[in-house]
Design goal:
The chain has 231 residues and is of the alpha/beta class. The protein is built from six helices and eleven strands. α3 packs across α4 and α4 crosses α6.
Length: 231
Amino acid sequence: MEIKIGDYKYPIIIKRKRIKHMYLRVTSNNEVVITCNNRYSLNDILKFVDSKSSWILKSLGKQEKIKNSKYNIFNKESIFFLNVKKKLQIIKSNKNFVIFDDEFIKIYTVNLEEDYVKKVFYNSAKDYLIDIINKLRNRWDLMLIENNINIKPEIVVKKLKSRWGFCIPSKNKVTINSYLIHYSKECIDYILLHEYAHFIQANHSKKFYGILFKYMPNYKEYENVLKSEIK
């Protein structure tokens, strides 16, 4: 079954459950899924979908943006890894592991479900990213010493939804977004500088941006790349 919203038709899936209200969601495959009980007629459902058409179109737009994003590893034959486009293979296996080489990224997984495959990939990519960060951080550790701040921050890599990194000076801790594995080493280095600069200047003041410019005069180039991608 399909429904027309705007100029396009989208698949609509109706799931009947013993629930009180009607619910709507949009999947990553651009399917409109309605969950409701048996007392709702098809006409009731179509009216409900029509009343939510603006929200549906907005959600479909978000899904399209995610599909086109560098860090979407599904529905594609390739993936960006450190800003290099590589061929992607997802292979069913009795063991989880990832092979990174010059041309391919091969994800071997016991489960081919999307969320599971992502977990396998990012678990391996996290270690790769940590190695890169440990090589890049020396410059910024020295920057802190130059500014009479004698600490070596703990750096943690994890999945973040709305920012590339954050700093908690009181805990001497920096957290970096694992999605940075898809971007250049220069972008990773910029995020490290940005978070380290907060140990010198806590807020985003003129002085803060002066620090960024002093140590990385072209920082805006990397800032603009990352601003266009973060959700």
